[in-house]
Structure formats: structure tokens, C-alpha cells
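Predict the holo structure. Ligand: zinc ion.
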Amino acid sequence: MLAPFLTFMLVAAGRIWGLWILFVSHLLLLMVTLVPSLQGFGPVLTKYCTKAKTAWLTIDDGPDPSTTPQVIALLEKYDAHATFFLIGEKVAKYPELTLMILAAGHAIGNHTQTHPQFSFWRLGPKALAREIDGFEGTITSLGIATPLWFRAPAGMKNPFLHPILATRGLRLVGWSARGYDTRIANSGKIVCRIKRSLVSGTIILFHERKQSEICLKALEQLLRELTVDRFSLIVPTAKELLTGNESVGKHLERGSA
Ligand SMILES: [Zn+2]
């Protein structure tokens, strides 16, 4: 906050290098915006505390008729559970798939109403609230309780996001393992990258859009290999996920989990 003032004082005093303060402070803000795990604007959940060999599999961008039923079938085959971060517009289009996810014992999270992947980081408070509330409205209209978890499109965030999430009792979820499954066209490499970061309490980022065949193949390989390693994919409870956080009690008391 002091950066513009300091820069002005130094430049006014003939210290041109004072411009660096402004440059560096803007660079820091940009990094916090673009790097999903950086917490400069508020808490981002990237892992949870556990001694068991478990991880939280999170699957973004559904529901989609070309992938969701297969994903559910694979999870069932390997006795795994996941949280699907859904896009509200697609939930409205495929309500039966959303209900299928829940009926199979999985959980859902808020991944905005329209998934504005390229503009989310620069949305103002009104547009952000519209995206978040739009999703909640869609979910509520299906008679489903609104979830506690929110994931930003492409993991980007700005200073307006956390206050909006806080007033709605939502938590921002990031990740600690990803295989770049929307970009790498080799399922073996995707699994290898995920497993490289996998420890107890890891949050895995996965997608069910773009490269759907490769993603499904990678998911099956990951599930198969983790079964051999006796590593379980679960949906942790809100308490497990928020352990050590003072506001856990508040959230649980309000029943928003
Ligand atoms: Zn997404």
C-alpha cells in the first residue's frame, strides 16, 4: 500500500531507482494473482493433515456426458471417492449427471457458474459474486445443499475474492499435485507427475474436459497404481480439511459443510 507513496517521494527527490519499488510491488501482486498456491490475499487450502495413506482427488470442469459416467464407473471399480468441482451452467444442462455424482457417494464443489477461465482474475466484486451466487442458485434449484468448497477457474484469484467467499461461508481450495492433464498428451506422464508430489494429505487436481480420452486413461492408471500401493482416494471431512483453523467450529456449527 505504501509503494506508490514511497515511489513518489523518492522520484520527487531525484531518486529514479524509486520506481523499482512500484515495479516490484506490482510484480508481487501479479504473482499472488497468478500462482494458485500463493496465499497473499487469503487462505488457500492445498493439503490436509492426516497420518493415513490418503489423498483428496478433486475433478474439475464437469459434469459432462462424455466423461462423468465413465469417471464415476472408474471410481467405483477401484473403491475411490472424489469431489467434483462443477460448472453451474453444465449442472443446469445435465442435472441428472450431478445427481448421479452425489448418488454414487461423491461430493461436489463450486467452480463458478460460467467458468470465465481467462478473465476470472480481473473480475470486479459484482461479477465475482454473480459467478459464485449463480452456481449456488443452480445447485439450490435442484434441491441440493450448497457446498463449502470453491475452486477458482485456473486457480487464479484477486483481492476481491476472499471477502466474497467469507460472507458465503466458502473456502478456497487449491491443490498440491497435478499432472497437467489438460495439456500433456501422454497418460503415463500425467500419472508420473501426480505421483511425484503424492504424500498423505495431498490434494490432487484432475479434469474431465478437453483430452477426455487421455484423462480417463490417466485416471484409470492412477487408480490402479494407487490400489497396488494401498493408497486411498477419499473425500475428507470438513473437520479434517480445516484442522488447526479457528473458524472450523463456526462453519460446522452453521451446518454449511
Ligand atoms: Zn476449471
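Confidence is low (pLDDT under 50) at residues 245-257. The first strand starts at residue 54 and ends at 62.
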